[in-house]
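#onboarding

Welcome to the new folks! Below is a worked example of what a typical request in this channel looks like: someone posts a single protein sequence, and someone else replies with the predicted structure as tokens. Don't worry about understanding the tokens yet, we'll cover that in week two.

Example request:
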Amino acid sequence: MSFGVTKRRIGFLGAVAAAALALAGCHYAGSGTVVSQTGYGKAAFSFDLSCTPGTTVQKGTLTFTDSPAGVLFRGTVNGTPAPGTCTNNTWTVPSTFPQDFVGTYTPLKGGTSGTFDLDVSPGSAPANNHAHFNLTLTGGQYDGYHIDGPVTAGSIVAVGGPNA
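Example response:
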């Protein structure tokens, strides 16, 4: 009899956990460095980006500085459609990275704005070097800029959901 009660409790707790994950949406935060696009020096990033659960609406900010390459900007995501519906820190559209954010960047020292596409994988460096940062800029002052590599210091965190 107590075995049945335990099974029901486990089933109930599992249902509660599943519901909590379903409400988690996609929320990634990170700060750290990657090797500069130039191949020497560092590029620094900081972001807090999310997607409303069950929707394609993204929001948040990104600050990025690659001093050796002369790239400095602040990016915003506010209502930009995501590449798929966001649920449990993953998109319904499969990709190499667990998270993809698209927004508008504004150069910090003046110049024409453009679009950024940021793909991230959670982790921390150097202990668990699964953290990955992939950024592409289109249009504006930094059109064609691309940086892709492991996080060399800092971390990228999935806030809630199965990738947390």
